[in-house]
Specification:
single chain; mainly alpha; 3 helices
Length: 170
Amino acid sequence: MSNYMQQELAFFCRAFLSGVILTVSYDILRIFRNVKEHTVVFMGIEDFLYWCMAGIFLFSMIYGENDGVIRVYTLCSAGMGALVYHKGMSSLVVRGSTWGLMQLGKFLAFPVRLIRNWRKRLKFQRDRVKIFLYEQKSIQTIRERIYEKNGKQKYKKNKEKDSCKGKKAK
């Protein structure tokens, strides 16, 4: 086989691998979407950014390997690589990774749930103490007012007694 044919075959294989890499990166995006729900707008932004990066990746690969000459077989080999991976392992990888990340999320959510429950209980107890102290404070102010009134009344009674004694003494 001639040197030129070997270079073209290697370029074909690299283009094929580029298609696989692009599909794997989109699968990562699909896994991310399966784990966490997204709005339509956010999904549109993600897809736009993905295709911009895919275009830059393919252009740089073609420019670096083939001096920027876009050949039909290059795009076909990238498409074949994407198709072979998508029809073969893609669904298994996406389902398995999504399941694994969901299980990991559940496992990691358990301690968070415990901490959240304890935080709620402590907050409830703190609020009960605040209410209790507030009620005690209001009872204390009521008592102070009552004692203050009683104190004034006693003072008035003592004054009246003193004035009555003073009149009798004169």
